[in-house]
Fold this sequence. Notes:
Blueprint: E1 21-22, E2 26-29, E3 38-39, E4 45-49, E5 62-65, E6 67-68, E7 71-72, E8 74-78, E9 87-96, E10 102-107, E11 110-115, E12 123-130, E13 139-145, E14 153-161
Antiparallel strand pairs: 1-2, 2-4, 3-8, 4-5, 5-14, 6-7, 8-13, 9-12, 9-14, 10-11, 10-13
Amino acid sequence: MHKYGENRIANGSFENIEGMKAASWDFCNTDGSLASWINEGDVRLELVHDGYQNIATTDGNVMLDMDASPGNVRIGQVLESAIDGVTYTISFDAAESTHGNGLEVYFGGELIAEVTPEYRTMNHYAFEFVGGAGDGSNLFTIGGTGPQDNHGAFLDNIVIAN
């Protein structure tokens, strides 16, 4: 149980690496797949280990680089158990690996937050949204923004609860 309630996100700390290949920085999957996640951008997904570029994970041993090869990443999950009209909280931890990178958070196709993480320091973010809002799809997505140079914001510990 999370402080906001039951977590409705699967693999929110990216610890399920099934099907991924080992790499020097940790794990990648050239087909863009990651357990429990929809790859909205169809780019390779890369997980980096705790301490990579002097950034510590906050839950588990890996975090997701939101600017993998060849560009910014956008991942999502449909919240099947979301109830229309109920307020939920999304929380996550993020850090900036270089400069000029950020994150955009969407629910039901509507932008609910833009984040510019602190340089090399994991910070915690939390935002509220309403089930069934936007286009009613209950699709949550989070995407990297900024230069497409293989170094983006690092993301860890995604929780959606009510």
